[in-house]
Structures are given as C-alpha cells and as structure tokens.
Amino acid sequence: MNKRIVSARQAKDYLSTLKPIWCPGCGDFGVLNALTMAFARLALKPEQYVIVSGIGCSSRMPGYLQGYGFHGIHGRALPVATGLKLVRSDLDVIVTIGDGDAYGIGGNHFLHAARRNVDVTCVVMDNRIYAMTKGQLSPTTPLGDVTATTQGGSVEPPLRPLLLALAAGATFVARACSWEPKRLATLLAQGIRHRGFAVIEVLSPCVTFRPEDRTLRERVVWHDREPTHDLLEAMQAALEGDGLTLGLFYQVGRPVFCGESEVHREVPMPKSPRRGLDAVLAALGESAAQD
Amino acid sequence: MNKRIVSARQAKDYLSTLKPIWCPGCGDFGVLNALTMAFARLALKPEQYVIVSGIGCSSRMPGYLQGYGFHGIHGRALPVATGLKLVRSDLDVIVTIGDGDAYGIGGNHFLHAARRNVDVTCVVMDNRIYAMTKGQLSPTTPLGDVTATTQGGSVEPPLRPLLLALAAGATFVARACSWEPKRLATLLAQGIRHRGFAVIEVLSPCVTFRPEDRTLRERVVWHDREPTHDLLEAMQAALEGDGLTLGLFYQVGRPVFCGESEVHREVPMPKSPRRGLDAVLAALGESAAQD
Amino acid sequence: MAVFGSGGRGVMLLGDLLIETAAACGLYGLLTRTYGPEVRGGESACFLRLGSRPFEMMPDALDLVVAFDWSNGEHFQQELQFKPNGWLIYEETVGDLPHWIPPEAVRCPVPWKRLADEIGFGARPNLVVFGALCRLLGLEDEPARAVMTARFGERDVELALRAFEHGAAWAQQAGKWGRRLPAVATDVRRWVLTGNEAIALGALQAGCGFFSGYPITPATDIMEALSRHLPERGGVLVQAEDELAAINMAIGASFAGKRAMTATSGPGFSLMAEGLGLALMAEVPLVVVDVQRVGPSTGIATKTEQADLWAAVASSHGDNPRVVLAPSSVRGCAELTVRAFDIAGAYRVPVVLLSDQFLGGRVEILDPIPLEGMDRCEQTADEHMEAGRRVHPSDPGGADAPTALSGRPGGDCVAESLEHDSSGRPDSSFRTHQFQARRRREKLQALAGEEGWIECCGDASASVALIAWGSTGGVVREAVRAAEAQGTKVKGIILHLLFPAQPEQLERILQGAEVLYVAELSSMAQFFYYLRAFYRLPSRVVSLARPGGIPYRAGELVEALTATGAAIRGAQHE
Amino acid sequence: MAVFGSGGRGVMLLGDLLIETAAACGLYGLLTRTYGPEVRGGESACFLRLGSRPFEMMPDALDLVVAFDWSNGEHFQQELQFKPNGWLIYEETVGDLPHWIPPEAVRCPVPWKRLADEIGFGARPNLVVFGALCRLLGLEDEPARAVMTARFGERDVELALRAFEHGAAWAQQAGKWGRRLPAVATDVRRWVLTGNEAIALGALQAGCGFFSGYPITPATDIMEALSRHLPERGGVLVQAEDELAAINMAIGASFAGKRAMTATSGPGFSLMAEGLGLALMAEVPLVVVDVQRVGPSTGIATKTEQADLWAAVASSHGDNPRVVLAPSSVRGCAELTVRAFDIAGAYRVPVVLLSDQFLGGRVEILDPIPLEGMDRCEQTADEHMEAGRRVHPSDPGGADAPTALSGRPGGDCVAESLEHDSSGRPDSSFRTHQFQARRRREKLQALAGEEGWIECCGDASASVALIAWGSTGGVVREAVRAAEAQGTKVKGIILHLLFPAQPEQLERILQGAEVLYVAELSSMAQFFYYLRAFYRLPSRVVSLARPGGIPYRAGELVEALTATGAAIRGAQHE
Ligand SMILES: Cc1ncc(C[n+]2csc(CCOP(=O)(O)OP(=O)(O)O)c2C)c(N)n1
Ligand SMILES: Cc1ncc(C[n+]2csc(CCOP(=O)(O)OP(=O)(O)O)c2C)c(N)n1
Ligand code: SF4
Ligand code: SF4
Ligand SMILES: [Mg+2]
Ligand SMILES: [Mg+2]
Fold first, then answer.
1. A180-184, B36-40, D469-473, D564-568: which range is least confident on average?
2. Which domain-ending residue is among C366, C400, C417?
3. CA–CA distance, C21 with C10 (Å, rounded to integer)
4. May I ask the CATH architecture of the domain A25-265?
5. Higher pLDDT, D48 or B268
6. Are C420 and C556 part of one and the same domain?
7. Contacting residues of D for C523, CB less than 8 Å apart
8. Are residues C216 and C296 in the same domain?
9. What pLDDT, on the 0 to 100 scale, is given for residue C384?
10. Among residues 515-574 of chain D, which lie with CB inside 8 Å of chain B?
11. What percent of chain C is predicted at pLDDT more than 90?
C-alpha cells in the first residue's frame, strides 16, 4: 500500500457500520453524505479529524462516521471541541449539531467560539424544531407555528443565526441545504480548510415533525457571489430572501484562538503579587536541572 | 398628602439606607445616581419598579435603591427578570448587571431576551473587567491587556455588545457613560419607557482594576443623531469610533414578549394526541360549575 | 397483554384506544409503552393490563401478545414472558416465528393484512386489530365508537369505524374468540391519565400561574399538557432557552407572587442545581419536577430509573435544606403536586417532586381524585404586611410575611443570594450566618413532624419489611399482596416525603421488623444509603438495588424476599 | 499575632512580608487573611503565627495585635482574643480605644504616623511598621531586605528600605521592644505557599497540560497562578465563558490526551454537575477542584465552610461513582492534586478535589514536598492499542486501553454520553445498562481497597475518637495535641478519600473507640450523615457540626469533647 492508494478513499468509506436511527427521508442523511464527500475530496484520513456533537437527532452524527468522535451532552459540543482543538491543533475538529444545541441551550458557547475565532467547523443542522424530543419550539421555529409546546402558536420571533454568527465574530459564514449534498460538500470542504470559526448553517428538514418544510426546496435561492470581507455587507446578504439565501457570505482571515499559551506572549509577564509559587518553581527548576 | 407631593420625590429619595461597598471613584456610583434621577424624572413610585441583578460589583445595585429588588446569582438576572415581567407586566423591570454577567456567563440569556423582545430595561455596567473577583478577563477586555488570568496578555478579541444586541433583536440600543449621569439618566428614562428589550451599555470604569480606563473620558464621542429604525445603519453607527460612540442608536416598535398566554392565541388549538387530560379538565370544569 | 411492532404500525394508538375504551366500559387498567432509540420507526411496544381493580405494574407473565411484525422484537424479549397457555396473536404472513417465542405460547395466526387490504387500509391494520381485540376482550362497541369519535373527530371517524367494524366482524365470525373481561357497571366516569398528565393536572388545580421549562424526555409532556391548558386559565408558559433560564424564570415569577413550577429530567435537573440553591437562599417558593430517566449523563432517555435521589436531596453547594416529595402512583403525581405547591408557599422553600419515567409515561385508569388547591393561590399575603414596615422573608418573626413583592408601598424587600440578616441586608458575620443557616434548617421541622407521609401496606406485625419509594412503591404494594397470597407476611413501606427525613415516624412503623429489604432502581443503592444516613434501621438491612431500564416485577421482589435470593444480591451494598 | 486596619493600609502586604521574612529566617508560620465585603477598602485583617514547628490554625488567643485604625474593627471582634498580657500596638493618635478591647491587653501606643511622615510615607505606614515588627519579633535584617528586594524589584526597593530602617531604628531605640522568636538555623529553603498555590504547583508537577476555568472567589488564584506558569510549560489555559464551558473544555482536552483540570467554588461546582456526569459516562479523566466557601447560593465568598460535601459525592443525576479527595493541609493540597491526576488517568474517572477557603487562602511556611508526577503525562497509551482493533474505554477488557483519541489509524473511538456497549455503541437494553453501571461502580474497588488514605493522630487506643476532613483535619491534629496536654487522650482521624468510602479501613481504625465526635463546618452536618451512610460507626456518634464562616479553633474542639458541651451541640443531629 502506498500513499496514493490511501488517499483514494471513497466517500462511502467514511461511513461507520452503525445504522442511523434517523427517519427515512430525514435531511440529516444528506448532511452525512455531504460530510463523507467532503472528507473524500480533502483526502482526510479518519484519524485526522474528530467529530464532536451534542444531543439531538443531528448530534448522532459522530457514530455514523469513521474516525474519532465525541457524542457529548446537549449544548456543550463547542466547549468540548474548543478544549480538544486547543491541545491538538493538528486535527480537524468538526462540530455537528442541531439548532437547539447551537442556538438554544448552547447559544452562549456559539457566541464565544465565534468571538474567539476557535478553529473548528461548526455544522448546524437546522430543522427549525426540537426533533429528538418530538417536536417542540426551537429558536429558529417560524413565528406563529404550532409546536408541542406552543399549542397556541409560537409568539417568539426566530433567531437569525447568520446575523448572530457575524456579529459575534465568525470568520467563515455560510448557509446550505441538505438536499443538495454536493454543494454542501463543497462548502464543508471549504469550511474545514478555513482557519478559524466556520459556521455552516444547513437547512436540514425534519420530515416527521415539520413535514411542511418540504416546501423550503422551492423557496431557497443560491447566492453565487464571492464571499465578502465586509461585515455589514455580509449581514445584508445573509438577511436577503427571508433568510433562505444559500451560499458562502463571508470569509476573512483573523488569528485563530490558541488560548493562553507561550506562543502568544508578547507582553512581559507582570510581577506576581505573591512570590511564593514563583520561588518554589524556580527552586524546583534548579534542582531538576541538577539531577 | 396629595398626589402632587408624592410625585415630587427627589432623586436622592430613591436611595436606600445601605452604604455602597464600591471603591471611591467607582463608575457605578454614577449609574446609581443616574437611576435615581431617571426615577425622579419619571416620578416612579418605589413599588412600581423592580431592580434585578446578578453577582458582581455592579450587581449590588438593587440594595442601594428603594423599592423591590432581586440580587440573584451570577449570569441569571435576565431570566429572573423575564419570569417576573411576564406575570407582572404592570411593573417596570430594570436589570442592572456587569459585563461578565451580561455577556460572559449570561450571554445566552442576553441573546434570547433580545430575540423575544422581553419588556425589560437592561443596564450593563461595562467596566471591561471582572471586578468583584479582582481583575480577571472579561468578554469586553481589550485584546492584549494583562489581567489576573491573562498574565501574558489577553488573546481574545473583545465582544461588540451593541452589535450583538442588534443582531439578536433588541429594540432599543444605546451606549452611555457613568461620568455623565445626567445624559445617562435621560437614556435610562427613555429605556424604561420603551416597550421592549432596551439595552443600555454604560461605560462604567473600575478605578481599582482598570485605572487606565480613566482615559476613556477623552475618547468617547456623543452620537447626537436621532435613533434609526434601520438595523444595519444602527450597527454601523454603533461600531463607529472604536465602539466608543455614545448615544441612542436604534429604537423600533415590535410586539413585546408575553410568553404563551391566552392573549396571543390566534391559531386554533390543535387536537390533543391523547384525550385523557382534556376529558378530566372538562369533567372538573363541569362539576365546578355545578357547585 | 402486550402489543408490539415496528414504529409506524400504530401500536401506540391501538394501546390508547384500548385503554380509553376499557375505561369507558368501567374497567381499571394500566398501559405502559416502550420505544427503541429511533425517533420514529424502530421497535415499539405497549403493555396493557385490564381488570376490575387498579394496577400499578405489569404482571409477571402475559395472557396475550399481539405482534404486528418481528422486526427488532428481540429487544423486548426480556419483557415478554408468557403465561402458560398465553396467546400469541400474529400476522399470518410474517413467516417463521422467531426462536425466542416460548413453546408454551398458544399460536394464533391472523390475517390482519388481508383484512386491512379488503377495506383499503393496507399498511396500517391497527384499527382492524382494535375491532378484533374489542370483541376478543369483551369490550363493548358503543364505548369504543365514542372513544374513536373523540379521537378522530366527527369528520374522520367514518373511515376508522369501517376498519373497526371489519375487524370486529371477523373476530365474531372466527368464533373461538371470546375471552371476556369482567365488565364492571359503574357510574363513575374514571380518569385515564399518565403520571405526567396528573402532574399537569395537579399544577392547574393548585393554581399554578407560571411554568417555564425546557424540553426533555420523559418530562416534556408536562410542559406540553400545560401549553394546552395553562394559558387558557390565565397562566403563562415559556419554553426557556435552557434549564438555567427555566428555573430562574420560575424564581422570578414566584418572587412576583405567582405559584411557579418547572419540570425536567436528570440532565436538566443537574443544570438546575445552582438555581435550586438560589430559591432556597432567597426563600422564594418553587416547585421543581424531576421525571427520572436512566443515567448517568444522557443515559437512556426513554427508560425509568430512581438514581436522581441523591441529587434531589443533596445537589447544589452549601447547606440546602429543601423539600423532596416522591409520588408512587399516578394518583400520587396529582396529589403531591398540589401538596408541593402548598408546602413551597407555606415554607418559602423549593420543593423537588421526584417522579420517574415509569410513573410519568404510563397510562392509568383511575378513580377521580378530589384535588383541593390552596385557597391562597397568589403567594403575596398583603394582609400580613403593615404599611411602612418591611418584613423580609428571612425575618424569623415573619413566618407569614409576604414571600414576594407585593406591589404595596412600604413592602420593599430585596431577595438576596448572599448571606443576609433578617431584613435582607448582606451580612458576612459568623453570627448572622449561624443564625440564618439554622433558621433555614429548622423551619422545615414542622413538615418533618407531620404524620401520614409514610404509607404502609400488608401486615403491620410482620417481621419482614420491604421499603421503597417512587414507582417501585407501586410494585411493593403488589408484591406484598402477592407474597401474602403465597403465605409470606410482609410489611410494605413506601416513603413519600424524602426530605426532610422522618426518622421517628419510620422507627415507629418499623417496630417489630427484624429484617428490612430495600428495593430501588439504582446501581449505587442510593435509597439504601439514604436510609442509613437519616433513619434508625433494624440490624439487618438488605439492599435489593438494581439499575433501572426495566421496572421491577412483583415476582422479582417476592423472590428476592426469600433468604437466599436476597443475601446474594444485597451483599454488594452491605 | 494579628494585624488589622481598613483596606488600603497595606495590611496584606505587611503580612506577606512578615511571613516571607520569617521563612527566610528558618521559622515555620501560618498567615490567614480576612476581608470585609468591600472589594477594596473596608476592613481587612491578617493573622500570623510564627514558631519553630508547623501550624495549621490560629491559636485560641493572641500575643500581639497591631491595629492601624479602628474602623470596622468590631467585625473582627469575635476573632480577637488576647492572651493574658497580650500586647496591643496601635497608632497613638487614633483616639480612645474601642470598648471591646479587653482590659488585660497591654496597651502600646506607637507614633506610626509621625514616623511615616518623617520620611514622607504619609498614609501608608506599613513598611515602617514592618521594620519595627522585625525588631520586635527578632527577625533578621538581611532576610527582610532580601524579601523586600524580591518583592519591589531593585529599582523600587530603595524607598521601601528607607521606611523599613526608619521603623527598625525607632523600635531599637524604644528599648522595651524585643520579644525574640526562637531563631532556627536551617539550610532548607522552605516554601511559602497558599493551598491554592499548592494545588497549582501539584498540577504543574503532575504534568497538567490544560486548564479551563471561570473566575470565582476563593478559587480564582489557582487559575491566576497557572496563567503565569502553565503556558511557559507548554500547557494551555483558557478562561471560559462560564463553568459549563470550563468543564466541557477540560473534557475535550482530556479526550485529546492531555491531563486536564478545572477549578471553581460552590456556585461554579453546582453548574458543573452535568459535565461531571459526562466525564464519568464517557470515561474521560478529569480533575475538578472545588475550593469551598460559605453557602448556600452566593453565600459568603471570602469565608470557609465544608458544606459542598454532599454535592461533591452526590451531585449530577443518575448513578455517578466518581472519586472525591480532600486535602487537610497546604501540603496535602499539592500532594493530592498529583494523586488526583494519577487516579483520574488510571481509572478514567472524574476526580473531585475538595479544598476550602481556609486551606486555599492561607499562607503556610512548609518543608519542601517531593512531588512525583506520573511518568505517563499524556493519557494516550498508544502501546496498548493494536492497530486495527478498537478498544473503547468502556471495554472491560481494556483497563489500560487508550482513554482518549490517539491519532493512530484504527484507534477510532466515539466517546458516548448515552448508555453504550463495550465498543462504545449506544445501547438501551437493560442487559447492557446493568453490565456497564456495575462496571463503572466496581472499577473503583481497587481504589477503595487502598490503605493510607485515613490519617490517624493522637492515641490509637483512646476510647474517644474525633473525626474530621478537610481543613478541619488540621484543627483536629492540633486539638488532639492540646487535649493530650490537658490529659485527655483522643484518637484523631482524618479522611482524605471521601469517595469511594472505605468502611473496612475506618472500622479497623475505630476499634476501641466508644464515642466518635464528628467535627465539620456544615449546619446540616453533612459529614455526620455521610459517615452514617457509608461506614459502620460506634454506637455513640456525636455531631459537633456548626456552620462555617470562621474555622474551628483547637480550644473549641477540646471543649466540645467534654461530655456536656458535646451533648448539647450534638443533639440536633442525633
Ligand atoms: C440538558 C438537557 N436538556 C434537554 C435535553 C433533551 N433534549 C435532547 S435533544 C434536544 C433538542 C434537540 O433539538 P436540536 O438540537 O435542534 O436537534 P434535532 O433533534 O432537532 O436534530 C433536547 C432538548 C437533554 N438531553 N439535555
Ligand atoms: C456561577 C458563578 N461563577 C462565578 C462567580 C464569581 N463571580 C462573582 S462576580 C463575577 C464577575 C464579575 O464581573 P462583572 O459581571 O463584569 O461585574 P463587575 O464586578 O465587574 O461589576 C464572578 C465571576 C459566581 N458568583 N457565580
Ligand atoms: S425526527 Fe426529524 S430530525 Fe429526527 S430523524 Fe426523524 S426526520 Fe430526522
Ligand atoms: S473594584 Fe472596580 S468596579 Fe468594583 S467597586 Fe471598586 S472600582 Fe468599582
Ligand atoms: Mg433541531
Ligand atoms: Mg465588569
């Protein structure tokens, strides 16, 4: 076996042997396929990436892919991914979560991961509902919709995820859909290659709890312009078409987050208010040097 | 005593008898004064408003004012205020918190309160530091600054609070400073009168842990234009001057959040998947009617 | 009986229709449901028990099993025990019976598919089966029709009735069918409720004015039920952005004078730990429902366990004397919810109501419950406040002081999460902390002194006692009866107030017991250790603890009460 | 001795300089600090004890009190007990002494202000006082100068030295001054550390590669210390957006193969409950430090208590057999931190290290500790993985399996929060849950079986035993000595491994004890009930529980051991 053969891995080779629990027709299948295509296109080895998720239908993703994965708890995928990436910057860290995970319970982490420009790819499978728990309001459920917990119709205006991502500081911001896995795969590959926090919001309809979202197919429009570097321009573009415009809206380069680590120390260390530990460490250092 | 006399309450009458624990020169004194001025200007009775806060130097506010208050836990002031407002819409609910409370640990609640347009006034005393805990990094600490937890200099770009507020859906967005309490009082009064989520970000320097922020005085500029209704225009204005422009940037009318309540039911109630409870309640209703 | 098949076959609907019809026919009954990990599709099963007395658990073995297909059936294998001569009714075209079907089961192949096809119902034969089963069980047509009409609406019921009648006719004609259930004539319109619905009902009856929650299986249907009914009664419901917000919103509403509640399951309950401490410190009444599922972490969302006990009693940092109540029946879910609101208000304390998936998810036919809400639904007791005098909830003299903002001039008070003095001012002195910590602890003494929280069944003079809480309490009631039928006398004990503990009361009840068996669904034997910590127990205490996932069967407990069985299993925890 | 004054007077700096100088002079010592609620200003005090043996608590009464002013002094009144003929040194111009100064104190007015003014130091006389105190106590000039130079830097030290010398000269000349401390000649360069610094030190020595935290008093200085030293050792530190993120970031880094830690105090620990369960279920090693403060809720941030015990053992829903360690000295803080990392890695389990403000915030002079980090600092044990074979952490055969992603082909594994089988696949069957729940519980048996976790002091054959944990353990060590000096034999017992419990070991140690006194700072007597739950205890067990805020004094415990005292206080919890 030589390297050429290894890199000729096909998309389907990235699938694990676990059978998805998803309902037939679920949008998440498209995302799974697109991920395998993107991996194949980038010729990633399964040990080169890690898939991190939370809890939800969408968050089952890590189990269905070859390679390392982390199926954590609801809303905390981004912190797990952040910790992981900070100590293993050689790996591609991909977060695959639902709208509830990303914008509901996990909203604060989304905000801060974007602000810090953590170098992970955040794929949000937005089905505009809490599917795993059988159909409750999500932060992206359209206003007025009846759900299991808004039986009189939702009174909450939905969040605008890309606006949020841009305001918070994400450096790669795109929207795609699950029913065009090839185009999605292209964006995924770009997002994985991007250095910094890449948000890829994927319209991934839930056929069981929002069958009406099948009509999204007719309503989306691809935005085929080049991504802009201008924040407000990107916001404008992302808002167009009632938030159903697809494409890559924004991409800029900005230092990625590495935590507080030696690399980043340009400022001289201030004097310590207490000397005890400094002295002990200095002493330990000396004695270690003597050994 | 007639009404005239009651409404002639002076600003200082709104102070409680508790002595602030703040350091001499702390910006929060200015905010306290401005609040009393705003109350006086609006001729509020102390039983007409509630001050809700989290934990931090700034969050000590409720204790220093007459009237009802809630000094809760770090980061959760907005949910407390939301619950309170939803059942007592007759009261003015004012949240007084720090940058850590609002944008750090409480970021998710900030996001969702803005999205829902909860009818509270959110006064953020931004001193760009965690002061109560003695000087650690805050989400608004400038890049590169040395703090107790970033002894090599912070590597995190600061959050842009007003951009976030606007992206998330706040309907009244302003920035002010603690050293001009009269102008702050005007904005506070406007914010309290505003129906919807009003964000008033107040530069309120911490003299102890960020003495360098005294220089902010020279750097701020008042934005004296009328508030716009245009989201992107407001964002642009809020970003100007390195985020040190002061004024009211944005104000729009939008239905305020009332939770799921009878008032908002325009959609017919869907059929229940199970009839048990409906039947029992119907039966109980009948028997109650008979009594 | 059990009905199972892969999802989408209408197994759950069939169960619902059967139990509602049985209720309308004057029977008692119990329905439990099991799902696989799939959101839709995958295996699903329901178990139904009908008769002339209330039931709290499934029998050890089944009279009747209805199988739509065999896909994934092996997942339920463990739960499928046939009675000798139990019937297995199955679709005749599905091919060979799986190997795990016991030979003693009487095989009854039936042409569901063909029957359904005949009337154009193709893949969903459940209504045809419903018709046939009604005939088989002896459930009457009239109630069945009424149930279907209520379910499908006048417009859609025609089609359903066609299928029903086709199935019924076939069963009639097939002849040998006719295991009639004892029809019980009754005037009482019985209730058909799940434990979660009973909690929602209790909340509504108690005058709950605010609910905030975040979806989580198996607690979500409390919120769903309230979403239908709370707003129309003038209350407010919010789906919060997370559980931290949920509990804090409820605290805010409670501070504003409303009876407020939140409901969750394990993971959400863990997130609420800090909020629970806030409610306690600020002395804001609050009801927090935890419908337990299998843990730790995400665990198994759809199955039952009793391993949140320690968390319910001990979570949140610092000294947190809260109240923990635990219903042991669907009826108890409703009743204790009302009590929970009353206690929360009276003691200005957070009350944790610990239910579990086995209670929350099962459907019971039960007699109507008289639910009396407290007359004082709003917590603000204006009459106790003299204008101009601030009476803070932390004032020991203010036992009846307003627990919340009253909106009255002079009633100003600041709820405080810092240690504070009797007027609510922050105070970090040792003296104040000592005084307030003690007051917070001792204010629950009146509750701890109450009688009636410990339920007894069986023989009060037996030397063998069996203790449990929560849904396992229901199993204990049945096990005690079963043991008695076998000639073994057992004293059954079920705790409903878990905190504060009631050592005196239990000691009195335990008098005469030489050995105490402790039944619970927790691998770490949380209840067993809880009992050791807070009670005086007989010298021999044997833990029967096992993890959840499947509730106990009565037979399992009866067997464990025999010396050998118990000694082996209990060893781990003694 | 004690030094107090309002903030900004340099009380804390003076304390630091004194203890560092004492250390350099070869003395042992202990320094504790007390703040008022004010962030800056307000009252503050430090207590210092110096001598020729290590100390773990302040004496019951003071030899020497130095007062800068009287503002808010009454807040410390409770902590200010003078020895007969104890000296009170105070600024002569401050006017009348407050009424609460006991008459037996020897009054020594001193012209600090004038002295400071003379050399232009006006409002901050602390360095002048430092000079005077060094003379008074007999601390040598050379070490004092070295300490000041290290503290102020070569450039700024000149001014400081002037003040120091001015004070020293005055004291010299004032004559009557000269209570010399026993100067101990030693070659050992002793350490001057707080408990929190010791934890940071332990983490660095154990090879911690990742720290994520969120500021909270009194734990923040662990993060602050690591912010200075972790990056320069190749580690990464992140201040997370909240504690939920902090613990999950650490889990992520640990899954990636680094030794990872987070540190917090009560409120943050409550927020970490869910994450703790995740680490447990996914079997990701993790060290979580909780430096306890007064609770519940926000409580009192700057004071000590031991009431997070239940939360440490029992928080998080479901069955969560984690490890809980508790140091009882500054030395223990360092040592147990290293152990915590080793245990976390070896058992693939979260380890809670329960410290408290009294340990974390005090400065001790102590002998150097040999701290051996594990040789295997990265948790990924590549050598245990055969290429092509997935060994999941949940595989019972994989006790040495990689606990984290190894980056090696074929090592793929998915960490899972759902119940899962030995290969990590989600599995909701009862059988799997039963098996895995048991395995998670039983894998800690080896640890529970270890010896050496229970410390004994005093008389092993005494019929009276006194048990404690955490910082109260240090007080027990001193109380046992004090009781012995009074002729009362006591067996002192200190637990350092709180979970899993070690009932056999403790039973052995308790042999011969007829009565067991339980000392702890918790109003609800959490340790007392914990002991009842998990151990076999003598028939008489008496709780001495009281809330925190102020640590025990040895005298307080000795007094309590007399029958009357104990009977009264223990009654509440028996
Ligand atoms: C702390 C916590 N709260 C709630 C839940 C229950 N829960 C599981 S998945 C989910 C939401 C799923 O929605 P989303 O993230 O949009 O994913 P989807 O299933 O729609 O793909 C919730 C609320 C949980 N597991 N943990
Ligand atoms: C859950 C929790 N985490 C941490 C803390 C500790 N804490 C108290 S105040 C504070 C931050 C204060 O910063 P900010 O909100 O900006 O207020 P400021 O003091 O600067 O006014 C923190 C982290 C806490 N009380 N609770
Ligand atoms: S419930 Fe919806 S989101 Fe979940 S698997 Fe089914 S279709 Fe997909
Ligand atoms: S520490 Fe800073 S923010 Fe806090 S009171 Fe002092 S000056 Fe104000
Ligand atoms: Mg979703
Ligand atoms: Mg701040």
1. D564-568
2. C366
3. 16
4. 3-Layer(aba) Sandwich (3.40)
5. D48
6. no
7. 319, 434, 437-438, 440-441
8. yes
9. 41
10. none
11. 60
Residue nearest to atom 13 of ligand 1 (CA): A130
pLDDT of residue C558: 94
State how many domains chain C has.
4
Looking at all shown ligands, the one closest to residue A214's CA atom is 3
Least distant ligand from the CA of B210: 4
Distance from CA of B56 to the nearest CA of D (A): 10
pLDDT at D375: 45
Structure tokens at C412: 């100003």
Residues of A in contact with D409 (CB under 8 A): 45-47
Per-residue DSSP letters for chain A? --HHHHHT--GGGGB-SPPP-PPTT-THHHHHHHHHHHHHHHT--GGGEEEEE-SSSGGGHHHHBSSEEEE--TT-HHHHHHHHHHH-TTSEEEEEEEHIIIIITTHHHHHHHHHHT-S-EEEEEE-SSBTTTTSB--TTSPTT--BTTBTT---SPPP-HHHHHHHHT-SEEEEEETT-HHHHHHHHHHHHHSSS-EEEEEE---TTT-GGGGGHHHH-EE--SPPBS-HHHHHHHHHHHHHTEEEEEEE---PPP--B-GGG--SPPPPPS--HHHHHHHHHHHHHHH-
pLDDT for D302: 94
Say how far apart CA C338 and CA D395 lie, in whole Å.
46
Shared domain for C397 and C362, answered yes or no, is no
pTM: 0.96
Ligand 3 pocket, residue A208 CB under 6 Å: yes
What's the pLDDT score for residue C562? 72
Tokens of D295: 């609770």
- CA-nearest residue of chain A to D249? A83
Q: Whose CA is nearest to atom 8 of ligand 3?
A: A26
A64 CB within 8 Å of a chain C CB: no
* D-chain residue closest to A273, CA distance: D151
pLDDT tens digits along C151-201 = 888 888 888 899 899 988 888 887 756 566 665 666 778 999 999 999 999
> In angstroms, what separates the C-alpha of B73 from chain C's closest C-alpha?
7
C33 & C150 share domain: yes
> What mean pLDDT value characterizes chain D?
87
Is residue C121's pLDDT more than 80?
no
Distance of CA D252 from the midpoint of ligand 2 (Å): 25
Q: What is the DSSP string of C428-459?
A: --HHHHHHHHHHHHHTTHHHHT-SS-EEEEE-
Considering only residues C185 and C44, tell me which one the structure prediction assigns the higher pLDDT: C44
Count chain A–chain B contacts defined by CB atoms under 8 A.
123
| C189/B80 Cβ within 8 A | no
Q: Residue B268: which of C239, C222, C232, C158 has the closest Cα?
A: C232
Per-residue model confidence as pLDDT tens digits over C395-451: 776 555 555 666 667 777 899 999 999 889 999 999 999 999 999 999 999 999 999
Average pLDDT, chain C: 87
To test the contact with chain D by mutation, choose from C78, C264, C294, C297 the residue with the greatest count of D C-beta atoms within 10 A, namely: C297
Query: Which chains lie within 8 Å of chain A at 3 or more CB pairs, if any?
Result: B, C, D
Determine the structural domain holding residue C11 and report its residue range.
Answer: 2-173
- Tell me, yes or no, whether D425 lies in a domain: yes
- Compute the distance from residue D283 Cα to the ligand 5 centre, in Å: 27
Low-confidence spans in chain D with pLDDT less than 50: 375-389, 565-572, 574
Range with the poorest average pLDDT among A52-56, B265-269, D219-223, D238-242: B265-269
Closest chain B residue to A139, measured at CA: B112
Among residues C115, C145, C173, which one ends one of the domains? C173
Specify whether C356 is located in the same domain as C394.
Answer: no
Q: Which two tokens stand for residue C133?
A: 């089963």
Ligand 1 pocket test target in A29, A58, A59, A74 with most atoms within 8 Å of CB: A74
